[in-house]
């Protein structure tokens, strides 16, 4: 059921021709109507109709923040709601994780399988300062709207919602991938979104990331009487730390190396037999991350060689870079832009000033991708290396003082009605993207070709 707006546009342009001057007069409203995707009104009307059902779910997740793998309230709230939706099969505590869940809608007709990821976890002490309540809302509403269109037009295919725990450092999506969750359901594409304070974008590209624990083992001795008998583990760690500081002079602008000392010895009068720290390395691509980690490992080894201490490095968690699919992103922008009000939506930031957004997504995808480049990381990156994915960014008003993500002020903003309403606009565009994949002949094949090309350049 392939559809586009070309026929509608041709009809529009031929309707208002001034024969005397030989030019066409059209209004902005007519242009917007011509560009409006066929299914957008159905999607938008449906999501508007369930907004009051979704608002208390969004608020409960926001107001009861829970850490990764402990999202008990969010898990129950979301699955309880999904169990009330006709045609969905809901599995709680899925794939060996207490707070993971899966909801499946199957038309029984062969077609693509589109999935939406639902994040739920908050940050320690500062709550939903990454807006995961809004991510959950956008994915939930997007999936429900997609199913509404499947039913309304008797379309084939399947829709899967994954409740994905512990994005904040716990890698819930990685565990789902390893357990075969996406393969079990034959997922073709993965959709999600993320709030922030930068203008709306379709092509969010996050960084590849690894978190490591480095430990040095030395030998105690009296630091004043017989220091020569000791091997100073803290000196080894400090040498490595300083080596990394020097290394930064020769790294790329997108490279990031961060670290802190977690164990710095027992007492000043004892040569330190043990020292440890946590280090994080980020890079623009997975390939670059591997090169950078090798250099950092050289600094760790140098600390051991310089002092005689032994070194142990434990890789704690790693996320791949999110490589967005350009064809899916183009579809998303096609649905999102007609929804953006010309005069804004009256948003105010945490200081009471007029806030930015929502913003139309640039038609030039190179510009869009520049807007969407982020120094942050997400386990959605690992999903994007397994299948085509997009993670559009959407702007919500910043908190007091311009506070963005991972700040208490942003958590406050993420709980507002305006932020919720903006997440619903995102849901409409996500649903449109899913419907395009389900209805446009050959689109999924082209999406997968684009994904393979992008993976060859990233890995």
From TrEMBL:
InterPro entries: Bact_exopeptidase_dim_dom (IPR036264), Peptidase_M20 (IPR002933), Peptidase_M20/M20A_hydrolases (IPR052030), Xaa-Arg_dipeptidase (IPR017144)
CDD domains cross-referenced by the UniProt entry: M20_ACY1L2-like (cd05672)
Pfam short name (any one): Peptidase_M20
Membrane-spanning intervals of the chain: none
Record region (Disordered): 340-410
PANTHER family registered for this protein in UniProt: PEPTIDASE M20, PEPTIDASE M20 DOMAIN-CONTAINING PROTEIN 2
Family to which this protein belongs: Belongs to the peptidase M20A family.
Name of this chain's protein: Peptidase M20 domain-containing protein 2
Organism: Neurospora intermedia
UniProt lineage: Eukaryota, Fungi, Dikarya, Ascomycota, Pezizomycotina
């Amino acid at each position: 059921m392939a559809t586009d707006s070309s026929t509608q546009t041709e009809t529009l342009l031929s309707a208002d021709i001034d024969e005397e001057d030989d030019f066409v007069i059209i209004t902005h409203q007519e242009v917007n109507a011509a560009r409006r995707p066929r299914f957008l009104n159905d999607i938008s009307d449906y999501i508007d109709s369930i907004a009051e059902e979704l608002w208390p779910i969004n608020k409960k997740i926001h107001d009861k923040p829970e850490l990764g793998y402990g999202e008990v309230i969010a898990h129950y709230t979301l699955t309880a709601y999904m169990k009330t939706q006709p045609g969905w099969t809901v599995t709680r505590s899925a794939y060996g994780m207490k707070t993971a869940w899966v909801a499946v809608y199957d038309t029984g007709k062969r077609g693509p399988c589109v999935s939406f990821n639902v994040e739920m976890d908050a940050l320690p002490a500062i709550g939903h300062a990454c807006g995961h309540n809004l991510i959950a809302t956008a994915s939930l509403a997007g999936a429900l709207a997609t199913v509404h269109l499947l039913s309304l037009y008797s379309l084939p295919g399947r829709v899967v919602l994954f409740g994905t725990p512990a994005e904040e450092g716990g890698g819930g999506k990685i565990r789902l991938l390893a357990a075969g969750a996406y393969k079990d359901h034959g997922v073709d594409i993965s959709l999600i979104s993320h709030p922030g304070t930068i203008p709306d974008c379709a092509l969010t590209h996050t960084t590849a990331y690894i978190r490591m624990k480095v430990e040095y083992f030395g030998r105690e001795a009296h630091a004043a009487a017989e220091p020569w008998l000791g091997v100073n583990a803290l000196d080894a760690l400090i040498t490595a730390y300083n080596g990394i500081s020097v290394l930064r002079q020769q790294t790329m602008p997108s490279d990031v190396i961060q670290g802190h000392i977690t164990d710095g010895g027992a007492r000043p009068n004892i040569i330190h037999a043990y020292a440890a720290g946590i280090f994080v390395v980020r890079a623009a691509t997975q390939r670059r991350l591997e090169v950078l980690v090798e250099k950092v490992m050289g600094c760790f080894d140098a600390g051991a060689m310089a002092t005689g201490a032994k070194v142990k490095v434990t890789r704690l968690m790693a996320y791949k870079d999110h490589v967005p699919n350009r064809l899916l992103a183009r579809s998303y922008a096609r649905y999102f832009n007609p929804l953006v009000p010309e005069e804004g939506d009256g948003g105010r930031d945490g200081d009471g000033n007029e806030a930015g957004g929502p913003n139309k997504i640039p038609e030039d995808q190179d510009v869009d991708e520049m807007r969407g480049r982020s120094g942050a990381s997400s386990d959605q990156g690992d999903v994007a290396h397994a299948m085509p994915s997009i993670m559009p960014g959407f702007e919500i008003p910043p908190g007091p003082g311009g506070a963005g993500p991972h700040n208490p002020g942003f958590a406050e903003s993420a709980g507002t009605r305006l932020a919720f309403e903006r997440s619903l606009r995102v849901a409409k565009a996500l649903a449109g993207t899913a419907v395009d994949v389900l209805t446009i002949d050959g689109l999924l094949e082209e999406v997968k070709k684009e994904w393979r090309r992008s993976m060859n350049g990233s890995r």
